[in-house]
Amino acid sequence: MDNYQHREAYTDAADFATDESFQLYVLGSDTHATKYWNTYCRKHPAKLKEIVVAKELISMLQVSEIQPARTTSSRRLWPVILAMIILVVLAGFIWLSPKNKSIPELAFYQAAETLEIDIEDDSRVILREGARLTRTLEMSTDQPRQYWLEGEAYFDIATSTGADGKCLVTLPVGSIEVTGTRFLVKSDANQSQILLEEGQVIYRYSDDQYILKQGQLLSFDGNRLRIDNDQDVDQYKSWSLDRLSLDQLPISELVDMLRSSYGLEILVQNEILLQRKITASVRKNDPLLLLKAIDELYDDIKIIYDNDQITIL
User: Which CATH code of 3.30.70.20, 3.55.50.30, 2.40.30.110, 3.40.228.10 fits the domain covering 242-312?
Assistant: First the structure.
């Protein structure tokens, strides 16, 4: 029998918040828990509101680490103690605030195609097909607006969006602290990519933080972090504009962009071509159409398609 079957019956925030595996997931300290709960969220979209509230409860308690127990009895006792604390906090919400104002109102989006969302504070979010976004609805002077994203999105954040003008974007791997800026995000259970167009963002994972500057691309898979400078943001965000355009872009960067944004694996047989700069544009968000245009525009570049393999000669 599935040891996780009991979680199918979870119906409220307390069920999730008192689950030790869920606590590890929120803290980002267990890879297995992260993968399990990301899959759970995808399978149970109707429970996302309770899941987000449970995350808020755990974060509010400022639990930074679940310590390994030294004895069997203490190992069993710790989840019970934390469960009692969370239930008391949740009961306090209900008692002190009949309308549950302490629990944030949330909005949920799932993009069947490219979806543009206008936010009340004049911010804007564009979701790529397949992305999921949850956000808090109410503005607060003492709490930042919060977003939870899985998938790919373009954020245009207004300068006054919450406490100290900040907002938070929580990803399956890490989180972003934002103050009036524009940036692209692609994140799933295995990795996060952030490309900064304007302003400044802080990427946080566990106890580490990284400040990104304009044009920098951060890539992190949970083990290795890499930051590339002077990236052409227009190339990466063209999907949000329903067009694809290149302006003197090296083929090496084109290959990276098509891999990260479209999942295309491209083999370049002639390494000299990697530094070749190309310019091309198509009025459709279709990478194969762009490759066809490059093939037709440049006599010395040949693109071959063999089932799932694309090769540039």
Answer: 3.55.50.30
